[in-house]
Amino acid sequence: PDKCAYQIQQSLKLQENPEQIPTGEMPRSFLLTCNRYLVDKVTPGARVKIIGIFSIFTRKLGNEKVQNSALGAGAGAVKNSYIQVLGIQKDQAGSKSENIITKEDEERFLKLAKDPDVYKKIASSI
Q1: Distance CA 115, CA 126 (A)
Q2: What tens digit of pLDDT does each residue of 6-25 get?
Q3: Residues 6+ apart with CB under 8 A from 81
Q4: pTM score, whole prediction
Q5: Which range has the worst mean pLDDT, 29-33, 69-73, 81-85, 97-101?
Q6: Helix crossing, 103-114 with 118-125: angle to 10°?
Q7: Coil, strand, or helix at residue 55?
Q8: SS3 label, residue 31
Q9: Strand, helix or coil for residue 49
Q10: Which residues of 32-58 are buried (b: 16+ CB within 10 A; e: fewer)?
Q11: Which among 6, 48, 68, 110 is least buried, having the fewest CB atoms inside 10 angstroms?
Q12: How many CB atoms lie under 10 A from the CB of residue 85?
């Protein structure tokens, strides 16, 4: 498996919880990608909690007229965002989602984000 040039991958679409959407509005969705052991872990309609890395990929447009237009050099590409999934947790049937991150955790994250040595601290803890 280590010498294989291919790996199994699955694309998922994460959608907002319907109970939390105002009446008359459409739920927003977000693209997710899963690799290897995370493939086929959830079924459509399942409620999940996702941990992952927010990423952006650039998709080039095939139309020469668009690429060479007066809009500039960046007109020939479209940037799309997605989450590279690192972990999936299924919610139990009938359970309501609650925040995993507490207010205290959020305050610690904000304090850590302002620390100029945050990279060194994280790297040394691994």
Answers
A1: 18
A2: 788 888 898 888 788 888 88
A3: 30, 31, 54, 55, 56
A4: 0.56
A5: 69-73
A6: 120
A7: strand
A8: strand
A9: strand
A10: bbbeeebeebbeeeeebebebeeeeee
A11: 6
A12: 22
